[in-house]
Amino acid sequence: MIPLMTIKQFFNDLRRQKLRSALTMFGIFWGTCSIVLLFAFGQGITESQIKAQRGLGDNIAIIWPGVTSKEFRGLPTGRRIRFTEDDARLIRSKSTTLKGISPEYRGWNVNLRYKKQNTLRSVSGVWPEFTDLRNVIPAVGSRFINQRDMDEKRRVIFLGNKLAEDLFEQEEAIGESILFNGTPFTVIGVMKEKKQNSSYNGRDNRNAFIPSTTFKAMFSRRYVNVMIIQAHPTASMEATKNEVYEIMGERYKFDPSDKEAFSIWDTTKGIAFLKTFFMAFQYFLFGIGVATLITGGIGVSNIMNVVLEERTKEIGIKMALGAKKQMILLQFVLETLLITAVGGILGFVFAHALIQVFPYFELEEFIGTPRINMLGSIMVVVVLGLVGLASGYFPARRAANLQPVQALKLF
User: Fold this and answer.
1) How far is it, in rounded angstroms, from Cα 8 to Cα 128?
2) Which ranges in 169-266 belong to alpha helices (H)?
3) Do 280 and 390 reside in the same domain of the chain?
């Protein structure tokens, strides 16, 4: 009965003080909308950046040959360490924490020609495992290099999607023949479009890939440029790197603790940094949202104090007729919570509507796709409840503590 009376009183107040009530609810509306949007866009940016970082590969490290910096078993410093495909096979056979490995030969300024289209691009000679290591995924209807291509040293080529567009424009690339430094190669696949914000030899979408055996035969290369390794999901990349140093140290007779013998770029550290950074970013956004809600709550509290002054006579009459302190307290608290709830719900609805129409602006490439964060939404509800309760309790307690005679006299 009391809540029903409170709701009726609430709507009566809305009709009498439209501007005041609207401005009060707008403070809560704006605070709720802001914090929901901050969380949604923060989540979208976080996922977009991590996805772009993983475009280079999941849980991988890239290894470059180097020069020894420590004496070892009578051998001097300054010895150059260079890798071959046999090294990759040795690491694959001896490592217990390795999931995948691929050597990579690199050729720059390779002339690729299709009809009248002509371009100079980077081309990599790789193993079939490269597709999984580097997330170079074939588009529908195409494939990556396989073991038979390797064994038979086939003249087949896999193109990045941007390179395929440059060469073939609107034409179908799969099955067509292009000239690779004047030699015919058959296009077996085109890369599925992916996000990638880091690289060591340019973006994959503008590069081409051929079997390592074919590359080695064409360019008479003995040494590979880099090796890509991937740690097993159950093992840490640090353990895998240590194994590689041990295996290569034994093979080339250098101290396994000599980190100059070859360089390793551990991409997992970059992803870990991004996760930590964006977690702190989310907390920062939450702090801004909470501050906004608290500001709105202060406005609600001030309005309720004004309401108390205006309704002092009403409170005195109710108490003279037998209304208890608890009833007066409950009435004012419920009115405050209703104002907070209405403003909060409208804020949620408006923020959700903005998130739904955002994809039409086609800005996902830059800031990702905003997504409602359930944990953030629950936290908003909790903060809203606390703000509403705190905003209404103190004016309500003041109203409940008035004496009937005092209330009538103050009017």
Assistant:
1) 72
2) 212-219, 237-252
3) yes
Residue where one domain finishes, among candidates 210, 244, 267: 267
Low-confidence spans in the chain with pLDDT less than 50: 1, 411
Nearest CA-CA partner of 266 in 292, 239, 289, 288: 239
SS3 235: coil
Do 242 and 311 lie in one domain? The reply is: no
Q: Judging by beta carbons within 10 Å of its beta carbon (0-12, 13-18, 19+), is residue 57 exposed, middle or buried?
A: buried
Same domain, yes or no: 114 and 74: yes
What is the tens place of the pLDDT at every residue in 195-217?
Answer: 887 788 888 999 999 999 999 99
Cβ-based burial of 309 (10 A; exposed 0-12, middle 13-18, buried ≥19): exposed
Co-location of 115 and 230 in the same domain:
yes
Work out how many domains the chain is built from and give that number: 2
d(CA 396, CA 409): 19
Distance (Å, whole) CA 25 – CA 156: 66
pTM above 0.85, yes or no: no
370 within 8 A of 41, measured Cβ to Cβ: yes
What the block records as the tokens of 112 is 């690729």
The pLDDT, as a whole number, for residue 14 is 60
Please name the amino acid found at residue 251.
Answer: R
Residues 182 and 208 in one domain: yes
Q: Provide the 8-state DSSP code for 82.
A: -
Place of tokens 């007779």: 253
372-391: string of b/e by CB count within 10 Å (b at 16+)? bbeebbebbeebbeebbeeb
CA distance 129 to 396: 69
Domain end point (choices 250, 267, 284): 267
Eight-class DSSP state of 191:
B
Helix axes 85-94, 237-252, angle to 10 degrees: 120
> Is-contact 154 211, C-beta < 8 A?
yes
Q: Which of 160, 171, 167, 169 is nearest to 138 (CA)?
A: 160
* Structural tokens at position 46: 């976080």
Angle at the Cα of 147 from the Cα atoms of 146 and 150, rounded to 5 degrees: 100
Structure letter (DSSP) for residue 323: -
Q: What token pair was written down for 401?
A: 């503590």
Q: Are residues 248 and 176 in the same domain?
A: yes
Two structure tokens written together for 216 = 């080695």
